[in-house]
Specification:
alpha/beta; six-stranded parallel sheet; three-stranded antiparallel sheet; 41% helix
Length: 406
């Protein structure tokens, strides 16, 4: 079943991608996620341009970044600075199981949404906060984005950058955001379970800094254990274990080998790739010798993989029992039969009838993919949500005329 959270209401006051994509995951799992957007412009992600890909010139009537972090939600436009607007937000929180936000403590206080004030609206609501650097400490009010708080400050870029390159590694859009969002969604699910068992509604916190530290926890732990700055790594393109490395094919593609148990798989692998001599070469067996002579083994494997195109290697390695993979492009992932078989993409239709795909949350239940859903238009569900809260049309019209809602 994909509707595991049917009946759970999430009220989300968040923008950009990190916290909203946690809300999208909860929507994929069946929750009713109501996204509060300000009447003066809404989520800035709606107009985000990534890599020069202007949403106004998109072949489909959707912003792909907005869809990733907001599909399956409903949107209400509210002016939180107005008395009517604050009352509406209070009514929403009173109806909710979870209040989800990435607003910093200062703005929340000015909006009358401190933890204590939120609990006055609803003492049983779970409050979930995603921040750049955590909810405590001297930088609790400092904003964050994943390239700074996750990639840079948490040590991710340092740990992943080969020692012999001029520039540190960068990241794809929302790389840390998406990992952080699914972690936050998992924390909210745990809090809902705890409340169900005990009646206590916990405060849930996560941050991009914490998520980045989790991503490179081995490097951070090794730094403490051994007093080193990072786990030892060779120049780009090398590995202490040559059977856990990337190799370029004749047509310029790459194959990633993951023979972690080289002593178990090495002989059969070498025979399969047409190099039985390497299986009996004393320099390369057992694994301790392979590591000692990694430069020679890497050179031989580079030469061998460069002799055939990727398609040939895919045929040769089709029955390889050890783990390996092609370095796939995003376009290839779209057409990966394993992706299709597991329903990892959802196909949505825009209002002009054109199909587009977006990625679902990476957790399913009972082998059932989430139903397809799109991101809401700005304030699209304002009237519907207000009617659900018990407002009548006269109240709604008066709120519109006062500028308290869209």
């Amino acid at each position: 079943m994909s509707g595991l959270l049917n009946g759970v209401r999430i009220v989300e006051l968040a923008s950009w991608t990190y916290v909203p994509c946690g809300g999208a995951a909860l929507a994929d799992w069946g929750a009713d996620v109501i996204k509060i957007e300000d009447t003066r412009g809404g989520d800035p992600c709606r107009a985000l341009i990534v890599g020069g890909l202007d949403p106004a010139r998109s072949p489909v009537r959707a912003n792909f970044m907005m869809e990733i972090g907001n599909h399956g939600k409903r949107s209400i436009g509210v002016d939180l600075k107005s008395e009517r607007g604050r009352a509406i937000v209070g009514a929403l929180i009173a109806s909710a199981d979870v209040f989800l936000t990435n607003w910093l403590p200062g703005p929340l206080q000015r909006a009358g949404l401190t933890v204590e004030q939120i609990r006055e609206f609803n003492p049983n609501v779970i409050i979930a906060r995603g921040s750049g650097h955590g909810s405590r400490g001297p930088e609790q009010d400092r904003g964050g984005f994943d390239a700074a708080s996750y990639l840079a400050r948490a040590g991710v870029a340092y740990a992943l950058t080969p020692p012999d390159v001029e520039f540190p590694v960068t990241q794809a859009p929302a790389f840390g955001d998406l990992q952080g969002g699914i972690t936050l969604a998992g924390g909210i699910a745990a809090a809902l379970f705890h409340r169900e068992r005990t009646g206590h509604a916990p405060l849930v916190d996560s941050s991009l800094l914490a998520q980045g530290m989790w991503a490179v926890a081995p490097d951070i732990a090794a730094a403490d254990y051994y007093g080193i700055d990072r786990i030892p790594a060779g120049p780009a393109g090398t590995s202490l274990n040559p059977a856990v490395n990337r190799y370029r094919t004749r047509d310029g593609r790459w194959v990633q080998l993951m023979l972690l148990q080289a002593d178990r798989f090495w002989k059969g692998f070498c025979e399969r790739i047409g190099r039985p001599d390497m299986a009996t070469d004393e320099r390369f067996t057992p694994l301790t010798n392979l590591v000692v002579n990694q430069e020679a083994a890497t050179a031989e494997l580079r030469k061998t993989f460069a002799e055939r195109d990727l398609a040939e290697w895919q045929r040769v390695l089709a029955d390889e029992p050890a783990v390996w993979a092609t370095l796939a492009s995003p376009q290839e992932v779209l057409d990966d039969p394993q992706v299709a078989a597991n329903g990892y993409l959802m196909t949505v239709t825009d209002d002009a009838g054109k199909n587009y795909r977006t990625v679902s949350a990476p957790v399913q239940f009972d082998e059932t993919p989430a139903p397809p859903s799109r991101a809401p238009e700005y304030g699209e569900h304002t009237e519907t949500i207000l009617l659900e809260l018990g407002m009548d049309w006269d109240d709604i019209i008066a709120a519109k005329e006062a500028g308290a809602i869209l």
